[in-house]
Automatic annotation (TrEMBL):
The lineage of its organism: Eukaryota, Fungi, Dikarya, Ascomycota, Pezizomycotina. This is Uncharacterized protein. It comes from the Eukaryota. It comes from Stachybotrys chartarum (strain CBS 109288 / IBT 7711) (Toxic black mold). Residues 1-65 are annotated as: Disordered. Residues 8-17, 50-65 have a biased composition (Basic and acidic residues).
Length: 65
């Protein structure tokens, strides 16, 4: 009894699979600790108005119900 499965493999030939080479160096933008720099921040933030006590008093005044 002929084995058609083996005959078909011989006709098509066995395919050879190889692993693609892995380069030792990776792109730095994909590095785990450098990939996301964090939120955007401006270098020239506006100064806070008044002293800490003034801001606290204004906060309490605005939060009155």
């Amino acid at each position: 009894m002929p084995d058609f499965g083996k005959q078909q493999q011989k006709d098509e030939g066995e395919k050879e699979f190889s692993i693609q080479p892995i380069s030792e160096q990776s792109d730095p933008k994909f590095a785990p600790f450098n990939s996301h720099p964090g939120p955007a921040r401006t270098n020239d933030m506006p100064q806070q108005e008044g002293t800490k006590d003034d801001r606290q008093a204004r906060k309490e005044e605005l939060n009155k119900k």
